[in-house]
Amino acid sequence: MLIAANQLAVNMDSGVATPGISFAAATRQSAAETGARNMMAFADQFDRLAIKRLSLTDFRCYRQIRIETDRRPVVLTGVNGAGKTNILEAISFLIPGRGLRRAKLADIARRQTADESPDTMSADGWAAAATLTVGDMNLEIGTGCEAGGGNKRVIKIDGSVKKSQAELGRYTSAQWLTPQMDRLFLEGASGRRRFVDQLICGLDPEHAGPVAAYEHSMRSRNKLLREGKNDPAWLDSIEDSMAQHGIAIAARRQAAVNRLRAVIHRGYGVFPGANIAMSGALENWLESDPALAVEDRLRQSLSESRSQDIESGASSFGPHKSDLTVYHSGTGMEAALCSTGEQKALLIGIVLAAARLQTEERGHAPLLLLDEIAAHLDETKRQSLFEIIALLGAQAWMTGTDENFFAPLGSGAQRFRVADGAVEAV
Predict the structure, then answer these.
(1) Spatial contact of 374 and 382, defined as CB atoms under 8 Å apart
(2) What is the DSSP track for 147-164?
(3) Which CATH number describes the domain made up of 1-10+22-173+366-426?
(4) pLDDT at residue 342 is higher than 80
(5) Which of 31, 140, 285, 395 yields a CA-CA distance of 20 to 30 A from 50?
(6) Would the CATH topology of 1-10+22-173+366-426 be identical to that of 184-363?
(7) What pLDDT does residue 41 have?
(8) Taking the alpha carbons of 249, 252, 257, 260 in that order, is the dihedral positive or negative?
(9) Distance (Å, whole) CA 264 – CA 272
(10) Domain limits of the chain?
């Protein structure tokens, strides 16, 4: 059963402040030079988004847990397989999308153990709920699948059932880094597109709508062509939807990446700067033609490529063909050719820059979900990361197997130990 949410009124209107100090300059200074006062100068200009209480029911390895927190960063430690990442995944369901693992909803429900009675299980039901604070305001969010509800996700905000995941994006946002993303620059373009869309949803919650609509239309078109149902009127309608949503996606990606490029090229602390851009046919068209003309061109291209797409089984044109290009701004080297350590540092720098940009544009930093973030960073990089998180005023949820990695945070973080389906404060 979905965890009930209390009825609370919340006004989410917020202005966008202008930072009073240079973010890049502040992060290049050592902690001893800046001190706590300068570290908080940036963050104090904005509201704080934080989880006060996180409750999970039949989620992955957890039968039922409740974690009480404040606005400080959260450190979760435990052995591999203890369930640390499951907690980050639960938080990632508090924003639109499929979560950081992109798992099927039916696969998230806790599995029955050998010593449990079937009566203790909730079939395929699971729930994640949180009390959030934004500035001085409280908000209750719950999401999950009700027992017997199949693969349908239920969303509640302040006790009211919402029809669309997009509603979540109005109130909360999160960015994450997981070990699986370490190969982002080496593997296929689809992962980089999802990465860009994740970043953009933090800046523009409405971006999730066109992405979902485009993917639905593209699947419909591919299915029709694959089954030989070459109905011109039907395909025209689907391709019209793909053209409208496809250009909206491409234009938003291009605009967001351009804004992000202006922030990320300098680098932060010890994390290198990056030159980033979207590349692809649509992006090239948008460089020279207005959006409406590009929309017409995409519509025509889809129509003319039907025979070709029947053979390939996929659509030849659209934003699903675009890619994110990343170059190390210091060396000019393509990210895919950089060392493993440089790639990790570039990725962290991009996420931190996106968090910085979101803080300025939306008035609060996103939640940061950083899985095993400290394990492959040297002491200097760990210290710089912790300083930047403090400067942003972000509630970062960080996992690791070694508590000593997080010792520099001191009393600036709250710590929990995860083991055997239980979480306890340290």
Answers:
(1) yes
(2) TT-TT--EEEETTEEES-
(3) 3.40.50.300
(4) yes
(5) 31
(6) no
(7) 59
(8) negative
(9) 9
(10) 1-10+22-173+366-426, 184-363
Q: What is the DSSP string of 56-78?
A: EEEETTEEEEEEE--SS-EEEE-
108 confidence band (pLDDT: 50, 70, 90)? very high
pLDDT digits (tens, 9 = 90+) for 282-293: 999 999 999 999
Assign domain 184-363 to its CATH architecture. Answer: Up-down Bundle (1.20)
Name the DSSP class of 114.
Answer: T
What Cα–Cα distance (Å) separates residue 169 from each residue in 94, 117, 155, 174?
A: 9, 38, 12, 9
Q: What would the two tokens of residue 120 be? A: 């203790």
pLDDT tens digits, one per residue of 294-325: 999 999 999 999 999 999 989 999 999 999 99
**Coil, helix or strand at residue 326:** strand
Q: If you search the block for the tokens 């908080």, which residue do you land on?
A: 40
Contacts (Cβ under 8 Å, ≥6 apart) of 32: none
Residue type (1 letter), 181 = M
Whole-number pLDDT of residue 117: 59
d(CA 409, CA 397): 13
Q: What is the pLDDT of residue 120?
A: 53
Q: Confirm if 149 and 174 have CB atoms less than 8 A apart.
A: no
